[in-house]
Specification:
This protein is mainly β. The protein is 6% helix and 31% strand.
Length: 358
């Protein structure tokens, strides 16, 4: 006979007193105390994902956009009069970029609006042939002007400038004669209305300059500057650095240049480009394609270098004496389109009155 040996089956249970009771076939076995396994609490750290939302900036100022809804509208260029009888003007402190160009024994402004507008704006005067190349990099901008001779009018209408002259836009563009001025220095319009006349396929402008990031230092290829005096045709211009306002302030013929709100004309950057002027009849024509010398005033310093522009539909490229791209301060910029050797830098501490206009 084969005997089968019974194996005790133990059922282990944890009871309040910590005893283990074993049961097999109803027979009780001696109890034993086993140590309890420690309970280990595990804390899983929470993970936090930080998403940095990029700052949307205005293409023509490099400053954060206050109103993103207008970023897709085209640039609007308004030709503004600088005759003594046209002063003070409307809109010069609202333009993102202003070009000052020589005309017939005077200067005229090409004020480029995008991040904000001006109602009214002006006084508006005629365009020039040089405006076509000078403004070609703004991606087919709207062009508000009073008109011009047959040759200039034909050239502008065949160009990439969108003609919104007085004869074309008229009341739809808000054109009117300001009763407090005498013609021809009293034509004004409204940027709000002019923008409504943009073609359906109009595109926003591309950035024209490179800007320093926040807390980024100005290039070491710079010198401190208190002011610059510029001899334009028929106008003496001075830009003076204000360390309190952190901007450059403009004077004309040794008098503060103010707008219709009695606010001094000002800009964070003043770009002085030396160009060759030819002539078309009695009108100067600035050659803004090619290369030349540039002085850039920004953050209270002067950066000297060169400008390059192989194509009128491309922005100017500014490089310092080391060959590095010159970066501007975010904000508004004035571009002085001067004849060669027509600017004089004024160092800090130098008597401005003793520095002559070149």
């Amino acid at each position: 006979m084969i005997k089968i040996k019974k194996t005790k089956l133990a059922t282990v249970g944890l009871i309040a007193c910590g005893l283990i009771v074993a049961s097999c076939g109803g027979k009780s076995e001696p109890s034993a105390t086993l140590p309890l396994e420690p309970v280990i609490e595990t804390t899983i750290p929470e993970t936090t994902t930080t998403t940095t939302i990029p700052v949307v900036r205005n293409p023509l100022t490099g400053a954060p956009a206050a109103d993103e809804s207008i970023l897709n509208r085209p640039a609007l260029v308004v030709k503004i009069d600088n005759h003594p009888r046209a002063r003070p003007q409307w809109g010069l402190n609202q333009a993102d970029i202003v070009f000052e160009e020589n005309v017939e024994q005077l200067t005229r402004f090409a004020a480029v609006f995008h991040s904000q507008g001006s109602d009214p704006v002006g006084p508006i005067r005629s365009g020039r042939q040089q405006d076509i190349d000078l403004l070609g990099s703004f991606n087919r901008p709207l062009f508000a002007w009073s008109g011009g001779n047959q040759k200039v009018t034909s050239a502008i209408r065949k160009s990439w400038l969108v003609d919104l002259s007085h004869s074309v836009a008229n009341e739809k563009g808000g054109y009117r004669r300001e009763s407090s001025r005498n013609a021809p220095h009293n034509l004004v319009a409204e940027t709000t209305k002019l923008w409504t006349l943009a073609p359906a396929d109009a595109q926003p402008p591309v950035p024209q300059f490179e800007y320093r990031a926040e807390n980024e230092a100005v290039t070491t290829a710079s010198i401190a500057a208190a002011a610059v005096k510029i001899s334009m045709d028929g106008v003496d211009v001075m830009w003076e650095w204000s360390p309190d306002l952190l901007t450059f302030l403009r004077s004309q013929d040794d008098k503060p240049h103010v707008d219709m709100q009695d606010v001094r004309i000002n800009a964070q950057n003043v770009v002085v480009i030396s160009v060759v002027y030819t002539r078309s009849g009695s009108s100067p024509v600035a050659k803004s394609v090619g290369s030349g010398e540039v002085w850039i005033y920004t953050a209270g310093v002067l950066v000297q270098g060169s400008w390059e522009r192989p194509d009128p539909e491309l922005p100017f490229i500014f490089k310092d004496v080391k060959g590095e791209i010159i970066k501007l301060t975010p904000g508004r910029t004035w571009v002085e389109v001067i004849r060669a050797k027509s600017a004089a830098n004024i160092a800090p501490g130098e008597d401005m009155k003793k520095v002559k206009y070149p």
